[in-house]
Automatic annotation (TrEMBL), chain B:
Pfam families: p450. The keyword Metal-binding applies. The lineage of its organism: Bacteria, Bacillati, Actinomycetota, Actinomycetes, Streptosporangiales. Belongs to the cytochrome P450 family. It comes from Nonomuraea polychroma. Keywords: Heme, Iron, Metal-binding, Monooxygenase, Oxidoreductase. This is Cytochrome P450. PROSITE patterns: CYTOCHROME_P450 (PS00086). InterPro entries: Cyt_P450, Cyt_P450_B, Cyt_P450_CS, Cyt_P450_sf.
Length: 65, 407
């Protein structure tokens, strides 16, 4: 199963991930990414992968498939 | 496989004006075909690397070994004269010009103001603002109407004023100054506009420091007070950046988006038939026009190897977002305006840690404007041939000066 990691130290709060897959990504009040789950289900996996490529600060990564 | 860099220096003198208003300068394509990273000559003298491949552009912009500090020696500035450089060096840097830890320290406190959730809460208010200006347009007894004055400029202007807590009666003043500042012509005018605006903002921040109020600046001031870090100069820089960046850019995208859609009726029909497609259309329009080209320049602080090219410390790098957004390797048939393309990976807002802070506010405004405008005035059309419009070939931010429309 896919596992996602979000590096809050790198995140610049662009919200690209939230716009792409709100079932997996959220932003805390301070704008920094917060994962709603680190194991996206099959329905969300493709969009979550897309979010990883869109993240401008390379804060998101896929740890395992 | 990456094409190797051309041995000879490409003879592109920068900046280049767009020939066709709906396409990048022809020279861009030639350069990209030659190599995704090549060397060019600057009009200001000197040379720089020209990055025109999409993949290479993202790699450079995400790499911390490239500096954004325009004050550094060797930074590839399009126009370079001693006075401009001196002015640049005498001002505290904007967030745009900071690197690494200094940049995140400046950006972090503000990003909470621009979360997707917080912006969504602004939707009804932005809708009201858009409806208000469209009401006025419909009530005008003369046609054609200039959409730039009637809608494109006042909408983002009012939105940013409200968000930042700038008294709206002042908006005419900063609107005129910011327009002047991004023009390529008359250095004197630009310098005066810059100084006027700086003085106005300094005064605004001083007023807010005694009466903060519940707006973006008010909250920043309260927060800095609490931490005992109240930084007047920093607040002025931030205010300056948010006011100028958040308003002229969106205004130009509104105008160009309308021109783009009206000139491609089959694409507009798709959007009209299904407003669910508007967000995708917005991304495609952002890609297609890429209004802020070349503002994402960098300076290598170390030797860096990218795409088979070795860039040495101290060399300037100009990342052309426009060229990258027309790279056929990333966008099939880039010259086609295709609202169903799915163009989210465009670089119109830049990439890397400096990627536009206000991008989601811009997205929201563009979506609401296009949806509302074509719903409320379905017969809207250009009152002049698109090719004859006065395009801003003389400005750093691309757009149209005037946009006569009728219905
Ligand atoms: S896309 Fe990346 S930088 Fe933007 S909020 Fe998400 S994790 Fe942060």
């Amino acid at each position: 199963m896919m596992r996602i990691n979000a590096d809050t130290g790198l995140c610049v709060g662009s919200g690209q991930c939230v716009l792409t897959e709100p079932a997996v990504f959220d932003q805390a009040d301070d704008g920094i990414v917060a994962l709603l789950t680190d194991h996206p289900d099959d329905q969300s996996a493709a969009q979550a992968r897309h979010a990883v490529t869109l993240c401008p600060s390379r804060a998101l990564s896929i740890l395992q498939e | 496989m990456t094409k190797s860099v051309a041995g000879e220096l490409a003879s592109l003198e920068l900046p280049v004006e767009r020939g066709c208003p709906f396409a990048p300068p022809a020279a861009y394509e030639r350069l990209r075909e030659q190599a995704p990273i090549s060397k060019v000559r600057l009009t200001s003298g000197g040379k720089a690397w020209w990055v025109s491949g999409h993949d290479e552009a993202r790699t450079v912009l995400a790499d911390g070994r490239f500096s954004s500090d325009k004050r550094k020696d060797g930074f590839p500035l399009f126009t370079l004269d001693a006075a401009t450089l001196q002015q640049l060096r005498s001002q505290p840097p904007l967030m745009l010009g900071m690197d690494g830890a200094e940049h995140s320290a400046a950006r972090r406190p503000v990003i909470g103001e621009f979360t997707v959730k917080r912006l969504a809460a602004l939707r009804p208010r932005i809708q009201d603002i858009v409806d208000h200006f469209i009401d006025d347009m419909l009530a005008a007894d003369q046609r054609p109407v200039d959409l730039v004055q009637a809608l494109s400029l006042p909408v983002p202007s009012l939105v940013i004023c409200e968000l930042l807590g700038v008294p709206y009666p002042d908006h005419d003043f900063f609107q005129s100054r910011t327009t002047m500042m991004v023009r390529r012509t008359s250095l004197e005018d630009r310098r005066r506009a810059f100084a006027d605006l700086r003085a106005y903002i300094d005064d605004l921040v001083t007023r807010k420091e005694s009466e903060p109020g519940d707006d973006l600046f008010g909250r920043q001031i309260a927060r800095q007070r609490q931490q005992g870090t109240l930084d007047h100069a920093g607040l002025v820089s931030l205010a300056f950046l948010l006011l100028t960046a958040g308003h002229e850019t969106t205004a130009n995208m509104i105008s160009l988006g309308v021109v783009g859609l009206l000139s491609h009726p089959e694409q507009l029909a798709l959007v009209k038939a299904d407003p669910g497609k508007t967000p995708m259309a917005v991304e495609e329009l952002l890609r297609y026009f890429t209004i802020a080209d070349g503002v994402t320049s960098r300076l290598a602080t170390e030797d860096v190897e990218i795409g088979g090219v070795s860039i040495k410390a101290g060399e300037g790098v100009i990342v052309s977002g426009l060229s990258a957004n027309w790279d056929p390797a990333a966008f099939k048939d880039p010259a086609e305006l295709d609202v169903e393309r799915g163009a989210r990976h465009h670089l119109a807002f830049g990439f890397g840690p400096h990627q536009c802070l206000g991008q989601n506010l811009a997205r929201l405004e563009l979506q609401i404007v296009f949806d509302t405008l074509f719903r409320r005035i379905p017969t809207l059309h250009l009152a002049a041939p698109a090719e004859d419009l006065p395009f801003k070939t003389d400005a750093v931010i691309y757009g149209v000066h005037e946009l006569p429309v009728t219905w």
